[in-house]
Amino acid sequence: MTLTADIKPIEREFLPKDFTITTWETLEPYFKQLLEQPINSKAELEQWLQNSSELEAVISEDACWRQVRMTCDTENKQLEEAFNYFYIEIAPKMQPYADKLNRKLVECEYTKELDADKYFTYLRSIKKSIDLFREANIPIMSELNVMQQQFGQIAGKMTVEVNGKEYTLQQAGKFLENPDRKLREEVYMKIQNRRYQDRDALNALFDKLVEKRHQLALNADFRNYRDYKFKELGRFDYTPQDCFNFHEAVKQHVIPLVKIIYEEQRKAIGVDQLRPWDMDAEPEGIVPLQPFTNGTELTEKTIECFEQLNPFFADCLRKMNELKRFDLDSRKGKAPGGYNMPLAETGAPFIFMNAAGTLDDVTTMVHEGGHAVHSFLTHNLELTGFKEYGAEIAEVASMAMELFSMEHWDIFFKDKEELRRAKFKQLERVLTILPWIARIDAFQHWLYENPAHTAEERGAKWMALANEYSTGLIDYTGLEQFRPYEWQRQLHLFEVPFYYIEYGIAQLGAIGLWMQFKQNQQEALQNYINALSLGGTKTLPQLYEAAGLKFDFSPSHIKTLMDFTKTEMDNLN
Fold first, then answer.
1. Sign of the Cα pseudo-torsion (210, 212, 218, 221, in order)
2. Residue 317: its pLDDT value, please?
3. What is the pTM of this model?
4. What is d(CA 502, CA 441) in angstroms, rounded to the nearest whole number?
5. What angle, 0 to 180 degrees and rounded to 10, lies between the N-to-C axes of helices 416-449 and 240-249?
6. Residue 285 has what pLDDT?
7. Strand blocks (E) in 136-239
């Protein structure tokens, strides 16, 4: 099969070609039509599924564009109103129809004639949605969709002044790499103080989110939101206990390696005791890495890097560039973070990030580029539902791309020593992020198992977890007031609850693919493409198997992967 990024938008056959979503009144007739449409054969059922899929794609793309536009400019009230209108006036009215259409499919006498293998995960997901649906939750979900975006509006306004110039917090972060320790401390304190200003607003927002999420769970007959969310996220292949095992494995096999990394950093920058503003610092006389100057250059260099890996990967980004599907540079009024937004109807996704010219931005770009390739590989699957893959495989797409792409980072770093440093830092990040992932996940389990907690108890639990996952090598003296609120910088807690352990599971899969890549590059890339092309049509263990991986996050497997990563780091020294 020849891969091509010249994808075509879904050909509309059910909806008028010029139809756009404006009001519920213009959209509702299509739901009614699907509900009333008779199904008298397997062929008619398959056509009905195609029509449903087309409607889903059009609605999904419209909702996604509203979010993209709002996050690109959080200060534009019209964009905020358009987003809110969809989630207050349209989405709640769709949900009862969606439930009736799900039931129509499950109860249809011809559904059992569908290919059992092809439709297994799709129908499993439909049945899960039926199980979870409650009329009482519709207004709560609507409120949550709007409330969750308030985090971006609060964080998007955060700026600090350094040397007389205003910077977003993402832009200011590059000063933390500077060899000048006094400057690093000054900027670190400014960032912390700026976040601290909004701690009460973010705590109040989070209190409301926890309360409403807990009510969703109770309404759906779950004891807590954790159990509800596991089902909603389709975590059919692992349990909370598996997550706890992952946390323990990180403590046993990752934190000892992180201690070595931190001790090496302390020696490299020549300090007696590491402080938080020392963690990204370069030694005296070493200029911080500057892989690009602006978003345009970042795009061009990433395309060139992907071209060396696989021309199809590069073509995906070229197509997105042609369609103006990038917003990369950091600026005031832009929401924090980065994402790849799949666009179900037109196919080519949108990449959003806050680039400031650092190595982390290169990592983010190739990470989101991996997601983009995944979007392209699944666009031609028959149904929109087939393209709805779990985050555990989605993040393998992005994290494996981070590691694969290092093979061609000479495009970003012409100097051999700079290239070595960049690769080494990336591998450090692969290891040092795992304790943070485990800590955020453990925090979420506690938050929703104890929904009546106070803001003070929340801060105390965060600090208790800080001690559990500590290397003991960083001195936080004098910073005690900030630490109980560190969690507030993690967007996922506000906007996509429980979406975080996936990064840990996927990091293991990504390292496994990288081990393959080191043995046979073409075979590893083919395994990667094979697995991603399946979308959500297979179970998670089957998707990992297609990639030549074990779906396993036991301590022994994690130790094997950590040892491999440590060896690769040693080879760079």
1. negative
2. 98
3. 0.91
4. 9
5. 140
6. 85
7. 159-162, 165-168
Q: Which residues contact 478 (CB under 8 A, 6 or more apart)?
A: none
Closest CA to 317 of 334, 294, 301: 301
Is residue 295 classed as helix, strand or coil in its secondary structure?
A: helix
> In this structure, what token pair is assigned to residue 382?
């028959």
Q: How many alpha carbons fall within 13 Å on the CB side of residue 22?
A: 5
Q: Over the Cα atoms of the chain, what is R_g?
A: 24
Nearest to 5 by CA among 327, 305, 313: 313
**Per-residue pLDDT at 1:** 56
CA 463 to chain centre: 25
Partners of 326 in the β-ladder: 351
Q: What is the mean pLDDT of each run of 10 residues along the chain (573 residues)?
A: 83 96 97 97 98 98 97 95 95 97 98 96 97 97 94 92 94 93 97 97 98 98 98 94 95 96 95 96 88 97 98 97 96 92 96 94 97 96 95 96 98 96 94 96 98 98 97 97 97 94 94 97 98 97 96 90 95 89
Q: What is the dihedral of CA 320, 322, 326, 331, to 10 degrees?
A: 180
Q: What is the DSSP letter of 345?
A: T
Find all residues with CB under 8 Å of 111, minimum gap 6, and list them: 45, 105, 123
| Count, residues in the chain | 573
DSSP 407-464: GGGGGT--SHHHHHHHHHHHHHHHHHHHHHHHHHHHHHHHHHHSTT--HHHHHHHHHH
Give residue 22's identity as a one-letter amino acid code: T
Residue 52 confidence (pLDDT): 98
* Per-residue pLDDT, 286: 86
Q: What is residue 5's predicted lDDT score, i.e. its pLDDT?
A: 87
Residue 210 near residue 447, CB atoms below 8 Å: yes
Name 166's bridge partners.
Answer: 161
Q: CA 382, CA 398: separation in Å to the nearest integer?
A: 23
Q: What is the DSSP secondary structure assignment for residue 386, as one 8-state letter?
A: G
Residue 110 phi, psi dihedral angles, 5° rounding: -90, -5
Residues 6 or more apart whose Cβ sits within 8 Å of residue 139:
92
- Is there a contact between 401 and 412 (Cβ–Cβ < 8 Å)? no
Q: Both tokens of residue 397?
A: 């797409």
Say how far apart CA 77 and CA 86 lie, in whole Å.
14
Q: How far apart are CA 262 and CA 349, in angstroms?
A: 38
Half-sphere exposure (CA, 13 Å, Cβ side) for 499? 14
- Produce one character per residue of 292-312: b if its CB has 16 or more CB atoms within 10 Å, e if not: beebeebbebbbebbbebbeb
Beta strands in 299-380 (DSSP E): 326-329, 339-341, 350-355
Q: What are phi and psi of 75, to 5 degrees?
A: -95, -5
| Nearest residue to 327 via CA among 359, 349, 303 | 349
3-state secondary structure of 161: strand
Buried b (16+ CB within 10 A) or exposed e, 135-160: eebbebbbbbbebbbbbbbbbbebbb
| Cα–Cα distance, 17 to 52 (Å, whole number) | 16
- Dihedral sign computed on CA atoms, order 107, 108, 113, 116: negative
**DSSP state letters, 465-502:** HHHHT--S-B--TT-TTTGGGGGGG-HHHHHSTTTTHH
Tokens 């209190």 belong to which residue?
A: 207
